[in-house]
Design a protein that fits this description.
Elements: E1 4-15, E2 18-30, E3 35-39, H1 46-54, E4 61-66, E5 69-70, E6 81-84, H2 96-106, H3 111-125, H4 140-152, E7 158-162, H5 170-187, E8 190-195, H6 198-204, E9 207-212, E10 215-220, H7 222-227, H8 232-237, E11 244-252, E12 256-260, E13 266-268, H9 274-277, E14 284-289, E15 294-296, E16 304-313, E17 317-324, E18 327-334, E19 344-349, E20 354-358, E21 364-365
Parallel strand pairs: 3-8, 3-9, 6-7, 7-8
Antiparallel strand pairs: 1-2, 1-4, 4-5, 9-10, 11-12, 11-14, 12-13, 14-20, 15-19, 16-17, 16-19, 17-18, 20-21
Length: 367
């Protein structure tokens, strides 16, 4: 296996006199054996970045290394990487065995070696009993396992995944996430995985790389990104539902308080915020709070009054969508709490779950 290193990588598309920067100032080191997930909305540059590693897109500027080797000008076939695509790209007229063996036979490996690799990969992916079937005889999950196996038999230095589960239904996606995570543990392989699904990113990656508009917004362990988003983009993208972001300002009222825009409500701030926010009184600040840190206030004189717009019962929990003075709020509540649409409810915020962002730069303000 090998590491992957990006140093100032850019990807620029030109069409006549116009140019478009798809990936900008991309700096990242993926360690040997690490599982890194690139996540972001459509058009953020994550698939373009992956395709540059595969050699399917050229690097406009910067350096891209696999191990110690500079691969900017190395053809895709000579990079020793394997890519699993969104569509399974299986040959319909071939059996699963023949699909797995195809690239190995192109490389003129001995047939005994081809058979060993195919059956070894089939065992790892638990598709031993499917090798004589053609793709139309396989379910979506089984086809994806064959596609994974086709990458596995090549024994590459780096595995690349481009939204491989997006064509599967919700249940199969969960199953295949487990399979890919198990495969990584078993192989200890270097893997770079692209997805727009933040749940996949949070559950699969050793680290996640949040991207927007071709730029890296934050790189960290999944829970670190969730607990301490670097800016309001990351806060609003990571999490389902995402972090509540409320615009307002810092004021003094017997202590520091956050006052929502328009004076809709105020939130008292714990003393831990004093040093970070005392010089920002009257300045724009965005308050962030995760839905699980919003609770009905036990004291009706505390908290802020919101009108409940929608209640989503999800079995083990409720998602409550509420609003006040033009501000929207989502609360994740235990299923035994009784709340109905149209009701006025006072919500309080757990101070341990609060984040603050600068109203201008939208960057996180450390407590």
């Amino acid at each position: 296996m090998a590491s992957v290193t990006f140093i100032g990588v850019r990807k620029i598309y030109s069409a006549g006199r116009s140019t478009r920067v798809a990936v900008e100032a991309f700096d990242l080191s993926v360690a040997d054996g690490e599982f890194v997930v690139l996540v972001g909305p459509s058009g953020c540059g994550k698939s373009t970045t992956l395709r540059m590693v595969a050699g399917l897109e050229s690097v406009s500027e910067g350096e891209l290394r696999i191990g110690e080797r500079l691969v900017n000008d190395v053809p895709a076939k000579d990079r020793n990487v394997a890519m699993v695509f969104q569509n399974y790209a299986l040959y319909p007229h071939m059996t699963a065995y023949e699909n797995l063996a195809f690239n190995l036979r192109l490389r003129r490996l001995p047939e005994t070696e081809v058979d060993r690799r195919v059956r070894e990969a089939a065992g790892v992916l638990r598709i031993d009993g499917l090798l004589d079937r053609r793709p139309r005889q396989l379910s979506g999950g089984e086809q994806q396992r064959v596609a994974l196996g086709r990458a596995l038999v090549r024994q590459p230095q780096v595995f690349l995944f481009d939204e491989p589960l997006s064509n599967l239904d919700a249940k199969l996606r969960v199953q295949m996430r487990r399979e890919i995570a198990r495969l990584h543990r078993q192989l200890g392989a270097t893997m770079i995985y692209v997805t727009h699904d933040q749940a996949e990113a949070m559950t699969l990656g050793n680290r996640i790389v949040v991207m927007d508009a071709g730029r890296i917004q934050q790189v960290d362990a999944p829970l670190a990104v969730y607990d301490a988003p670097r800016n309001t983009f990351v806060a609003g993208f990571i999490g389902s539902p995402p972090m509540n972001l409320i615009e307002g300002e810092i004021a003094r009222d017997g202590g520091l308080v956050f006052r929502a825009r328009g004076g809709a409500f105020s939130v008292p701030l714990d003393a831990r915020w004093t040093r970070a926010l005392e010089g920002r009184a009257g300045g724009p600040v965005i308050l962030g709070v995760r839905p699980e840190h919003v609770r009905p206030a036990t004291d009706q004189r505390a908290g802020a009054s919101f009108r409940v717009d929608l209640v989503e019962p999800l079995g083990q929990e409720l998602l409550v969508y509420a609003s006040a003075g033009g501000h929207e709020l989502v609360a994740r509540l235990p299923a035994d709490i009784r709340v109905s649409a149209g009701a006025q409810v006072r919500f309080g915020f757990d101070d341990r779950g609060l984040s603050c962002f600068d109203g201008g730069s939208r960057e996180r303000i450390p407590a």
